[in-house]
Amino acid sequence: MNWYVLFVQTLYEDKLCVFLNRSEDVFAFSVKIEYYRRDRKANELKSLFPGYVFVKTELEQDTFNDWLRNQEVKKGFIKQLQYQTVSALTPEEIQLFDMLLDDKGILKMSYGELVDSKLVIQEGPLCGFESYIIKYDKRNRLAVLNLFFLEKQWISGVTLLENKEL
Asked: Could you read off the pLDDT of 79-129 as tens digits, one per residue?
């Protein structure tokens, strides 16, 4: 599976994903995180990397470039991020995306507890990634991870188990 990154206007990232997903050859998504919204007292989704659309496809780089050029609607599309003839994503980044995101490109909420002032994840995608958590905002239920993509630090929703609403 090949991965490609498209730089788009943030206003159009979801619309562009819907448009690109009309093709059977590609799966386009905008990475979202599930986070807790205090004012609504519910979990919601927001973009983790605003302005970026990720595409997974079997198409090779040259074939994908031709396919992308031939699309009739490109509203919001700015450019494809790539180095010469290869994708802008490294194999390590692709592996990280595969490990943390679900099949729809969502970084789901994780649940854990504080043990000796350290966050220990009991369930969710951050299970096993505790060593990457550098800060936990208990009030907003967000963890800051020591992981970067395009010079932007990853954040993830984390709810402490005693606050978990079943």
From this structure: 888 776 666 788 888 898 999 999 999 999 999 998 887 889 999 999 999
**How many beta carbons lie within 10 A of that of residue 128, not counting itself?**
9
Beta bridge partners of 114: 119
Tokens representing 111 are: 């649940």
Other beta carbons within 10 angstroms of residue 84's beta carbon come to 5
Query: Quick check: helix, strand or coil at residue 62?
Result: helix
Q: Backbone phi, then psi, for 25, in 5-degree steps?
A: -85, -15
- Are 40 and 116 in contact, with CB atoms under 8 Å apart? no
Instruction: Report pTM.
Output: 0.86
Number of H helices, E strands in the chain: 3, 13
DSSP label at 90? -
The count of other CB atoms within 10 Å of the CB of residue 140 is 14
DSSP class of 24:
T
| Cβ-contact 104, 121 below 8 angstroms | no
